[in-house]
Amino acid sequence: MPRFSRFGYPILLSALGAWSLLLVSCMVVGERALVIPPQIPGATLVGSDSCTKCHSGITHRFHDATHAHLSQTLESGKVQNISCESCHGPASQHVKAGTRDTIINPKNNPESCLRCHVNNRAEFTLPHTHQVLNGKISCNDCHNPHQGAANSGDAGARSLATAANQTCAKCHPAQSGHYIFPHEAMRDGCVSCHSPHGSVNDKMLKARNTSLCYQCHFQNQPSGTSIIHGGVDHSNNVIRGTCWSAGCHEAVHGSNVNSSLRF
Ligand code: HEC
Ligand code: HEC
Ligand code: HEC
Ligand code: HEC
Ligand code: HEC
Ligand code: HEC
Ligand code: HEC
């Protein structure tokens, strides 16, 4: 049974510069960015302060979270922080009952994230994607909802692009492993080659051909026709397939035996 309905309270978000960009993609009425939070039948918003009593572990470290500044203006003119409920739904019934069935947990349903992040929805419907829409993997397997930058991964780094190696390693230890000859590309993060939300390419690769590698390994054609990489003439190699599928650099993440990532 879906607990969300399409229509509900329009919420006026605090006009912080950084927020407005994304909000344009949510809904814009006049100059104001509006968002429709998830709905729980019969429940109303009570504000984030009322969560502290029972969830102090979360509220104490929430202040620096990306999503900590969502608010609504009450009829009295008072501004009320409703950050918690913008993801979890209005909590008037929950704060009385303290039961799981009176509140939404986005872990079990990515819809409460995607109703604001509408631009990201399509990525998860691409042919190669993490199985987020069917609930096998959650947004929060890779994103922090309650502390620090939502994009920082578990490592608490500023950018998931670099912290991702650790986030991804939880589930993909083989590719994230400590190699004797690591591919230095890994320092820029898994996202230099993969689009973890989804891609038209197999293995969620950012490109299906050698242009994936040419992002960093520039083509060098000194004599006009030959293709040189690392001082080696590759002219006859690159026509055989991609750099990793042509029987050459198959250990693209790193190798324990070969510094040229061959095995
Ligand atoms: C009176 C205490 C109380 C208050 C106030 C309270 N909660 Fe809870 N909440 C609980 C209890 C108890 C549970 C765990 C229920 C269980 O384990 O069955 C819970 C569980 C949750 C869950 C997990 C639900 C799930 O399905 O996993 C979420 C999310 C949640 N609360 C959010 C909130 C938010 C947001 C607020 C503030 C708007 C809030 N709570 C205020 C007592 C409270
Ligand atoms: C960006 C959306 C978002 C915001 C904002 C948010 N949460 Fe959550 N919350 C989540 C997600 C996703 C999960 C599931 C992840 C998990 O279990 O760690 C969750 C889980 C929870 C749980 C259940 C934790 C457990 O161990 O079962 C509670 C309680 C909770 N949130 C309370 C809050 C409170 C209180 C606030 C505000 C201070 C808040 N949340 C703000 C997304 C959010
Ligand atoms: C009420 C609307 C709303 C909901 C619900 C919401 N977000 Fe956000 N989210 C925002 C806004 C606004 C920003 C800030 C955008 C900016 O700074 O440009 C943001 C930022 C983010 C960022 C950082 C983007 C960046 O470029 O740094 C991530 C990641 C993110 N949200 C993930 C989530 C996840 C995962 C959930 C569900 C657990 C969620 N959001 C739920 C509104 C929302
Ligand atoms: C498998 C891991 C993974 C999952 C699952 C995941 N993300 Fe992401 N997401 C990332 C990574 C990694 C980045 C950073 C990409 C970069 O830096 O190039 C990112 C970036 C983002 C951003 C900011 C950049 C952008 O594309 O707008 C938002 C917003 C976001 N994710 C929302 C979500 C939401 C909502 C969900 C669930 C529906 C989700 N993500 C599920 C890994 C994931
Ligand atoms: C919570 C566990 C989890 C996390 C975290 C996670 N993944 Fe995955 N990943 C999976 C699962 C499960 C699959 C298999 C998907 C399927 O086929 O259903 C997968 C598939 C993949 C594939 C495609 C494999 C194939 O055979 O097509 C790539 C590439 C990938 N993940 C990269 C990443 C990257 C990069 C990150 C970090 C941003 C990441 N994953 C984070 C669980 C995870
Ligand atoms: C230099 C580019 C590059 C980087 C960086 C990279 N990958 Fe890959 N990855 C690839 C290519 C290319 C393939 C496809 C290999 C193939 O088809 O044999 C692949 C395949 C995968 C697969 C599927 C493996 C399989 O056997 O099906 C997973 C999972 C994966 N990568 C995870 C990661 C993770 C996690 C990271 C970061 C720790 C990462 N990758 C960093 C290029 C890269
Ligand atoms: C994000 C940047 C980046 C991407 C993308 C990238 N590489 Fe690399 N790669 C590096 C860096 C940096 C080095 C180490 C310096 C050097 O040798 O050029 C390196 C080294 C290598 C080496 C070892 C060279 C040697 O013998 O010492 C091979 C082989 C290689 N890369 C193949 C690939 C292949 C194949 C792809 C595409 C799947 C790829 N690289 C994509 C950055 C990248």
Q: How would you sum up this structure in a few lines?
A:
The protein is α+β, with helices and mostly antiparallel strands and 263 residues long. Helices cover 19% and strands 8% of the residues.
Strand content: 5-15%
Largest sheet: number of strands, sense, barrel closure:
3 strands, antiparallel
| Rounded radius of gyration (Å) | 23 Å
Output the strand order for the largest sheet: 1-3-2
Reading the helices and strands in chain order gives: EHEEHEEHHHHHHEHEEE
Notes on the protein architecture:
- This protein has nine helices and nine strands.
- A hairpin with a 5-residue loop joins β4 and β5 (79-81).
- The radius of gyration is 23 Å and the shape is elongated.
- It has two domains: 11-141, no CATH class; 208-263, no CATH class.
- It has a three-stranded antiparallel β-sheet with strand order 1-3-2, with no helix packed on it. A two-stranded antiparallel sheet has the order 4-5. The protein has a two-stranded antiparallel ribbon with strand order 6-9.
- It is α+β, with helices and mostly antiparallel strands and 263 residues long.
- Helix content is 19%, strand content 8%.
- It has helices spanning 17-23, 56-59, 83-88, 92-97, 111-114, 118-121, 160-169, 173-176, 211-214; strands spanning 11-12, 28-29, 32-35, 71-73, 79-81, 181-182, 228-229, 232-233, 254-255.
- 19% of the residues are buried.
- The site of one heme C has 23 residues, from α1, α3 and α5.
